[in-house]
Amino acid sequence: MKVAPIMRVMGEYPGRFEQVLVHTGQHYDFAMSQxxxxxxxxxxxxxxxxxxxxxxxxxxxxxx
Length: 64
Hints:
alpha+beta
């Protein structure tokens, strides 16, 4: 994904940026979905929205 290098650099500056990655499923592709999951797993505890066929969405990790 094009955003991965940007997120990696932002991660080098802790406390300066708050990253939120959202998978809308707009152009659903199984391989792209797996790539998204791999990138999102590098940021445990962050909010994550994922989509699957039929577009049911699940929101996890909501911060107070």
